[in-house]
Design brief:
Helix content is about 5%, strand content about 30%. It is mainly beta and about 170 residues long.
C-alpha cells in the first residue's frame, strides 16, 4: 500500500521521482588502435565510480588520469593536461594538490585482463558544474607508460601516454 501511495504522489507531482544514476563510458584504445577495454563511469554519493576490464597493458605500474580534453588522437597529447578545474598543483604529495583528474596508479601484475576499480571524489558526471567531466570540450581517460610519482609538476613524470578514451 505504501509503495502505491508513493507512486501516486510521484505521478501527481507532489514529490519528485528518484533520480536515475548518471552514467558514462570511455572506450580505451592504444596508439596503434588496439582495443584496450571499456570503462564504465557511474555517479555515486561518494564520487564517480570507474570500473572495467582492460587488456594489453604491460606489467608494471601505470599512471591513470582524467585529462582535460575529450580527444584521443595518438600519441594522445590531444587530451591535454590533467583535468584541473581548481587550478591546483599536481599530485597527492604536493601542497595544495591533487588535480581533480589525478588518480591512484594501476598495478598491473601480468599481461592478462586487469580489473580496474576506482572512485574519484573530485569530479562529477553532472553537467554545468565546475568539476563536471562534461565541460565545453569534454574529458578523456589516459593511461601512461610509467608510474605517477604524485608530486612532479605538472603531471607526475609518468612517461608517454599508452591508452586513451573519450568520456561519453
Amino acid at each position: 500500500m505504501k509503495m502505491k501511495f508513493c507512486a501516486v504522489l510521484v505521478a501527481l507531482g507532489v514529490v519528485a521521482a528518484p533520480a536515475a544514476a548518471l552514467a558514462a563510458s570511455a572506450q580505451l584504445k592504444a596508439a596503434d588502435g588496439a582495443d584496450i577495454g571499456t570503462l564504465s563511469l557511474v555517479q555515486t554519493a561518494k564520487g564517480v565510480r570507474i570500473s572495467g576490464t582492460l587488456r594489453g597493458l604491460t606489467p608494471g605500474i601505470h599512471a591513470f588520469h582524467i585529462h582535460e580534453t575529450g580527444k584521443c588522437e595518438p600519441p594522445f597529447k590531444s587530451a591535454g593536461g590533467h583535468f584541473n578545474p581548481g587550478g591546483v598543483p599536481h599530485g597527492k604529495h604536493a601542497e595544495g594538490g591533487p588535480h581533480a583528474g589525478d588518480m591512484e596508479n594501476l598495478f598491473v601484475v601480468d599481461s592478462g585482463p586487469y580489473e580496474l576499480k576506482a572512485v574519484n571524489d573530485k569530479v562529477t558526471l553532472s553537467t554545468a558544474v565546475k568539476h563536471s567531466v562534461f565541460d565545453a570540450d569534454g574529458s578523456a581517460i589516459v593511461i601512461h607508460a610509467e608510474a605517477d610519482d604524485y608530486k612532479s609538476q605538472p603531471s607526475g613524470a609518468a612517461g608517454p601516454r599508452v591508452a586513451c578514451g573519450v568520456i561519453h
